Amino acid sequence: MINKVVANAEEGIAGVKDNMTFMLGGFGLSGIPENAISALQKIGIKGLTCISNNAGVDDFGLGLLLQGHQIKKMISSYVGENDEFERQMLSGELEVDLIPQGTLAERCRAAGAGIPAFFTPAGYGTEVAEGKEVRIFNGKPHILEHAFEADYAFVKAWKGDEAGNLIFKGTARNFNPLMAMAGKITVAEVEELVPAGELHPNEIHTPGIFVQRIFKGTNYEKRIEQRTVRQR
Amino acid sequence: MALDKNGIAQRIAQEMQDGYYVNLGIGIPTLVANYIPQGISVEFQSENGILGMGPFPFEGEEDPDLINAGKQTITALPGAAFFDSAMSFGMIRGQHVHMTVLGAMEVAENGDIANWKIPGKMVKGMGGAMDLVASADNIIVAMMHTNRAGESKLLPECTLPLTGVGVVRKVVTDLAVMDVTPDGFKLLERAPGVSVEEIKNATAGRLIVEGDIPEMKL
């Protein structure tokens, strides 16, 4: 067993520098690496390119890094619900690359799986396809999309072990397993960190080979964006 | 009288068939889940990573790790499954999802759809909409026939940035049910009490009217 455990988020993010490209897991605020984001906010590195499905809200998630003008470019599929984001984008301070959600997921997966590029029908005939190679397969046009590259991937899991094996909970899984595969250095934060052998091999979602560092996160807020309930 | 949003949802629910896996977009499409006909089993997919999505939770039972693509708290029904985003869009692109219902700002008579961007005004992103419309054979649009300014949303050509080209199969509005055909919008049904003339006046794209057009049965 190769031990991947580090003490905390500060050790987890060791080596990050200005102008790097990061992947950050999560859908909305569900399954985001809260501890890593806080640590990145604290050390104040700048010029970052962040690949993340969303950009958080004004005062939580990636919104915290936007507040400090740490992000130069966002690569996302949906960025509503964030006024500061909109302001920075419209004023030209922030570069934004919007790409279809399935393409975003597959570009992460491809990066981790040694697939440099692939064809997808998503976005054909739209502004997303501008400048991209088009090929017809089975009578249907597809556009060429490339795998991402990322210096670090920051992911959040429910449980993990010393070997870096991860188990996710509910829909907090989302982009996390794909980004874990794709980062040159993948840093996983978990709610529960257990010794190797305690997680059943049948139940592992992300094998530890994809994870370089793992730590037990603290003070999870796990904010809910749209609290919707029904009457009893 | 024109339908309200629930009426549109109720009519779309009649398109469901037993055994369908269905993806419902945000807005009117979400309401479709409330009107699934008796005796039919369908399962809802939400592209953030769940099949077998259930109703909203009771107060106090919300789980931040269990949301839908609209970021609303939800529940998982017996038989539900969770998965990552690449597998989710694998289901969608691989045409394992039988039907997608989504909203639109504009639909063109050739099936083009625009629903993600108003240049200079609203840029939130397309989310999963481009993957969904490019992938399924059965795309139904749920929307009001006209916009707030009273202008038709059913056009000869879209004026807004496209989400997909030639992808919409059917449109259900507060006024009518229409198929998208190579010749334009083919009128199938009228909302109760709405005349063909009213529908014609509210449709800027080519509208095909053949024979008597029945009223929707809700």
**Which structural class do the helices and strands of chain A define?**
alpha/beta
Strand ordering within the main sheet of chain B: 4-3-2-1-5-10-12-13-14-15
Largest sheet of chain B: 10 strands, mixed
Distance N to C terminus of chain A = 49 Å
Unreliable stretches covering 5 or more consecutive residues of chain B: none
Helix content of chain A: 10-25%
Extended strand count of chain A = 11
Number of strands of chain B: 15
Descriptive notes:
The complex is a heterodimer of chains A (232) and B (218). Chain A is α/β, with parallel strands linked by helices. Chain A has 6 helices and 11 strands. In chain A, a hairpin with a 2-residue loop joins β6 and β7. In chain A, α5 packs parallel to α6. The mean pLDDT of chain A is 97. Chain B is α/β, with parallel strands linked by helices and 218 residues long. In chain B, the strands form 3 sheets. In chain B, strands 4-3-2-1-5-10-12-13-14-15 form a 10-stranded mixed beta sheet, with helices on both faces. A 3-stranded mixed beta sheet of chain B has the order 7-6-11, with no helix packed on it. In chain B, strands 8-9 form a two-stranded antiparallel ribbon. In chain B, β2 (43-46) and β3 form a beta hairpin. Chains A and B meet through α5 and α6 of A and α3 and α4 of B.
Q: How do the helices and strands line up, and which of them pair or pack?
A:
The complex is a heterodimer of chains A (232) and B (218).
Chain A: H1 9-12, E1 21-24, H2 34-43, E2 48-51, H3 63-67, E3 71-76, H4 83-90, E4 95-98, H5 101-113, E5 117-120, E6 134-137, E7 140-146, E8 150-161, E9 166-167, H6 176-182, E10 183-194, E11 213-216
Parallel strand pairs in A: 1-2, 1-8, 2-3, 3-4, 8-10, 10-11
Antiparallel strand pairs in A: 5-7, 6-7, 8-9
Helix pairs in contact in A: 5-6
Chain B: H1 5-13, E1 21-24, H2 28-31, E2 43-46, E3 50-54, E4 75-82, H3 85-93, E5 99-102, E6 106-108, E7 113-114, E8 117-118, E9 122-123, H4 129-135, E10 139-142, E11 154-155, E12 170-172, E13 176-181, E14 184-190, H5 196-202, E15 207-208
Parallel strand pairs in B: 1-2, 1-5, 5-10, 6-11, 10-12, 14-15
Antiparallel strand pairs in B: 2-3, 3-4, 6-7, 8-9, 12-13, 13-14
